[in-house]
TrEMBL record:
InterPro entries: Amino_oxidase, FAD/NAD-bd_sf. This is Phytoene dehydrogenase-like protein. Residues 28-449 form the Amine oxidase domain. GO terms for molecular function: oxidoreductase activity.
Length: 495
């Protein structure tokens, strides 16, 4: 009887099963949250179902190439962004190579290298460039009227320009949205596009991570462990436990031994998104196979088994190994005249170690526009042939082609549709790319989700709440927005 009691009651459990905080998922969001909690002297356990950390922000070595599990080794706001600030605050070593250009634009069969914003006149021509300037004024110098805030961005464009007479200008916005947000223009609100663009301009140029995203996740993992945190791989959380509306711990499966264990903590941070977190609260599991089956059903955006509609951003990515350099800069090449590929990066321009010596890694990205994945892949290949012609056949090899959707999407929630880190269960918080505040995309949004979570923790501690300023108050510089006119602001001159 006594033995049975001690199994059920947290206070008499062995100390090894009690923690100050449990983090579900060792993706970037989970690792960043854990790093902050250990910095606050919390006894932290991170549980990860895979046999490695990093989630969609790591890489595997394949034929000597750093093939990423998600991110294209790129950080949207570069060395001045939110993630960079956070890593410095945590004292995790990192180096980001900022882009040296605004980008290049493949239009009418030619790649135009553009240093700053004004350079887009080269491929837009004087008339479309005039409309480009007008849109810039409407977006950044005029308060956005209330009736335009929620307008899908394609409708906003139609309201202000003649879209038929400005095809390259429309393609310019469309391809940037597809590459950066994995969304079509009709899927994102005008307010969100403007807020995100303002942040991009204020923080600075995007950057490639030194060593790739795998190296950064590894460093974060080591940092958490060095500071006393525990990370258990191949451990899948099966249930989040609660008592009287308060979180009390989790039950998980150790996949290698098949053993189930329960661990207790008054604080649980979930990095697996709201859909999977809600399921674990109800002792259910969401599997990738079941989700993809649901998505194949005709009504693609219908609620899953009565759950609220979750609209993730989906994409297709191709890793290409090339004998020759195809992109002459460290930024993004946007493809305005392709059928599917929205943009390509060549991260080996910043860090050659991401591919074998003398070779180049190229990563393409596109939004999946139909249910026919094979056709989407074929269109990507056709685009590559169109973009690089014979050079592609002679010098390039496709290493991998992969789709990102269901429980492994580009963004767990589409930009602008994110949820709060606070849940209805006391002590249970969400971090990650379903919790991105408005205007913060991809891993910058993940870092801001952790800042938001820290603010919520501080608000529970009166002394901290009184003395500390918000963690989210990381600001870019207005001067950067000016610099963008003629160059990409960042550290590219240094490296
Ligand atoms: C194709 C693609 C391209 C991208 N490009 C970029 C880019 O260039 N730049 C950029 O900034 N971002 C990019 N992103 C987005 C970026 O990768 C993600 O925003 C970020 O990695 C999300 O991190 P996260 O911690 O929120 O989630 P995740 O990385 O998904 O982490 C969640 C972790 O939880 C684990 N987990 C799930 N369920 C359980 C469970 N029950 N128990 C235990 N563990 C569990 C998962 O295995 C995973 O490791 C891209 C994403 C994709 C897919």
């Amino acid at each position: 009887m006594q033995e049975q009691l001690s199994q059920n009651l947290a206070p008499v459990l062995p100390a090894s099963e009690r923690y100050d905080a449990i983090v579900i998922g060792a993706g970037l969001g989970g690792l960043l949250a854990a790093a902050h909690l250990v910095q606050r002297n919390k006894h932290v356990l991170v549980l990860e179902r895979l046999n490695h950390s990093g989630g969609r922000f790591t890489a595997k070595t394949f034929q000597g190439v750093q093939v990423s599990t998600g991110a294209v080794h790129m950080v949207p706001f570069g060395s001045s962004g939110v993630l960079a600030h956070m890593l410095s605050r945590l004292r995790v070593p990192y180096r980001f190579f900022d882009a040296d250009v605004f980008g290049s634009f493949h239009v009418h069969g030619k790649q135009h290298r553009v240093r700053g914003l004004l350079g887009v006149s080269r491929f837009l021509g004087p008339r479309q460039f005039g409309w480009f300037l007008r849109l810039g004024w409407l977006m950044f110098f005029r308060p956005l009227p209330a009736d335009e805030r929620d307008l899908p961005f394609d409708r906003w464009l139609e309201r202000h320009i003649n879209v038929k007479r400005n095809p390259q200008l429309v393609a310019f916005f469309e391809r940037i949205s597809r590459f950066a947000l994995s969304l079509e223009l009709h899927q994102v609100s005008t307010a969100e596009v403007i807020q995100t663009t303002k942040n991009m301009f204020r923080f600075g140029a995007p950057a490639i991570v030194d060593g790739g995203c795998g190296a950064l996740s590894k460093r974060l993992e080591q940092h958490v462990i060095k500071q006393g945190g525990e990370i258990l791989h191949s451990c899948e959380v099966r249930q989040i436990l609660q008592e009287e509306g308060k979180v009390s711990g989790v039950r998980f499966l150790q996949k290698t031994s098949g053993e189930e264990r329960t661990v207790y903590a008054p604080l649980v941070v979930s990095d697996i998104g709201p859909r999977a977190t809600d399921a674990l609260l109800e002792n259910r599991r969401i599997t990738q196979a079941a989700l993809l089956k649901e998505l194949k059903n005709p009504a693609m955006e219908a609620p899953l088994r009565g759950e609220p509609t979750i609209r993730e951003a989906v994409g297709l990515k191709v890793h290409v190994l090339s004998d020759v350099s195809l992109i002459p800069h460290r930024g993004i090449m946007y493809c305005l005249d392709t059928k599917r590929i929205a943009g390509i990066v060549q991260p080996t321009n910043s860090d050659p170690s991401l591919a074998p010596p003398g070779k180049h890694l190229l990563i393409t990205h596109q939004v999946i526009q139909s249910h026919n994945v094979e056709e989407e892949k074929a269109l990507a290949l056709a685009d590559l042939r169109m973009l690089f012609g014979e050079t592609f056949e002679k010098h390039c090899r496709v290493l991998t082609m992969g789709t990102y959707r269901g429980e492994w999407p580009v963004n767990r929630l589409s930009q602008g549709e994110d949820v709060s880190p606070k849940t209805h269960v006391q002590g249970l918080y969400l971090v990650g790319d379903a919790v991105k505040p408005s205007g913060y995309l991809m891993v910058e949004g993940v870092a801001q989700s952790v800042n938001h979570f820290l603010d919520l923790l501080d608000s529970l501690d009166r002394e901290r709440a009184r003395t500390r300023r918000s963690h989210m108050a990381v600001r870019g510089s207005k001067l950067n927005a000016l610099r963008w006119l003629y160059k990409a602001p960042g550290n590219s001159g240094r490296y």
